[in-house]
């Protein structure tokens, strides 16, 4: 089971099997088209805070383990910032995107489903 939409799951499988630079850049573009930097930081902090403060997680009982989680959080934020800089610089170099972002495809599919559902409703039922 996975929570990724099929298009992103396919990118993941392609990346893992072919280790394609083009697929890696597509995934990076998709990630930043779905989430802004501030949202990424907030979500990472929520995950880190949950792990540190969760009574059921034995590993967070030691101070050193909590420090390691915070270090990993801060380094992951730094890594995300670095990837974002690379992505922004690459976008500026490219004039036209070579693909339609999956986020746009997913939004488009949702809109098409709404239109289709609305067309099926009997007229005057509103």
What can you tell me about this protein's structure?
- By secondary structure, the chain is mainly alpha-helical.
- The protein has a domain at 58-88.
- It contains five helices and no strands.
- It has helices spanning 6-18, 21-34, 37-53, 63-93, 102-120.
- Helix 1 (6-18) runs antiparallel to helix 2 and helix 3 (37-53) runs antiparallel to helix 4 (63-93).
- The longest helix is centred in the middle third of the chain and has 31 residues, at 63-93.
- The protein is globular.
- It starts with 5 loop residues before the first helix and ends in a 6-residue tail after the last helix.
- The mean pLDDT is 80.
Shape: globular
Total number of helices:
5
| DSSP E strands, number | 0
Output the radius of gyration: 20 Å
Structural class: mainly alpha
Terminal-residue CA separation? 38 Å
Strand content: under 5%
Helix content: over 70%
Can you summarize the main beta sheet? none
Q: Extract low-pLDDT stretches.
A: none
Summed over residues and divided by their number, the pLDDT gives a mean of 80
What is the H-and-E element order?
A: HHHHH
